[in-house]
Amino acid sequence: MIEIKNLTKIYKLSSGQMKKLKTKSSTKVAVDNISFKAEQGEILGLLGPNGAGKTTLVKLLMHLYEIDRGEILLDGKNIKNYELESYRMNFGTVFQDYQVLSISAIENVLMKDNITEEERIAAINAMKEVGIYDRIAREPNGVDTVLSKEFDEDGTVLSGGEYQKIAIARIFAKPCGIVILDEPSSALDPIAEHDLYSNMMKACKDRTVIFISHRLSSAVNADRIILLDHGEIIETGSHSELMEKNGKYAAMFRRQAEN
């Protein structure tokens, strides 16, 4: 279980940022006194408009940013008391700014070389889960195809959505207790996104999943939704509970459904 207690993150602003934000304050509160728990096996959706604090929150969870106030506990232990590398091994992540490297497809999924046969099978299964295996298997070198022609003329160049599936396959191949997904399907069409989320939730059974998405349809099957605005939690509950509440989430959901 991961628990967030009174978490606050404050950014210092440059003069250029102050001008852009049209503010006289030299600081910006990105996450403001947030508290919640994510139980093992729970699927948690973090939603909200741009600038609500969603990405800052998950980067604090991964200890990529330092906490200004409050604390984060993993299994009851403050994350500052963990060895950093061992703490981050608990997470499988896909961020918006993912990177696919000029190495083979299977190395990109596992993010390592000297791959064992067991790891190879896990990576192939991961590629099948996200729907990219058949595309890679058509290449002469199959999963050993380099995902670029920059250093290998026998390499291949994928589409944006295909590269994104390679990045997402990493969480399927990695044994970890917590999965964080920050807009993992932004390059996919809605139908492909729906299929991908269905597969991800099956593959992540018994793991804690925390995901960010601007497409509210992806949050329908979350166990719990946390709606953020200006760094604060303004609503929380399941999709049906929040629709019945008829607040900001319900208004946002109906607006997207109309389109």
Please give a structural write-up.
The chain has 259 residues and is of the alpha/beta class. The protein contains ten helices and ten strands. The strands form two sheets. The chain has a six-stranded mixed beta sheet, with helices on both faces. It has a four-stranded antiparallel beta sheet with strand order 2-1-4-5, covered by helices on one side. Helix 5 packs across helix 7 and helix 9 (239-245) packs across helix 10 (248-258). It is globular and about 55 Å long. The two termini are 37 Å apart. The mean pLDDT is 87.
List the keywords.
6-stranded mixed β-sheet; 259 residues; alpha/beta
C-alpha geometry: globular
Order of helices and strands: EHEEHEEHEHHHHEHEEEHH
The radius of gyration over CA amounts to 20 Å
Treating each run of at least 4 consecutive H or I residues as one helix, how many helices? 10
Query: In terms of structural class, how would the helical and strand content be classed?
Result: alpha/beta
**How does the major sheet shape up?**
6 strands, mixed
Quick recap:
With about 260 residues, the chain is of the alpha/beta class. The chain has helices at about 15-20, 55-60, 85-90, 105-110, 115-130, 135, 160-175, 190-205, 240-245, 250-259, and strands at about 1-10, 25-40, 45, 70-75, 75-80, 90-95, 180, 210, 225-230, 230-235. α8 links the parallel β7 (about 180) and β8 (about 210).
Give the topology, please.
Layout: E1 2-12, H1 15-21, E2 27-38, E3 43-47, H2 54-61, E4 69-74, E5 77-78, H3 84-88, E6 91-94, H4 105-110, H5 117-130, H6 133-137, H7 160-173, E7 178-182, H8 190-203, E8 208-212, E9 224-229, E10 232-237, H9 239-245, H10 248-258
Parallel strand pairs: 3-8, 3-9, 6-7, 7-8
Antiparallel strand pairs: 1-2, 1-4, 4-5, 9-10
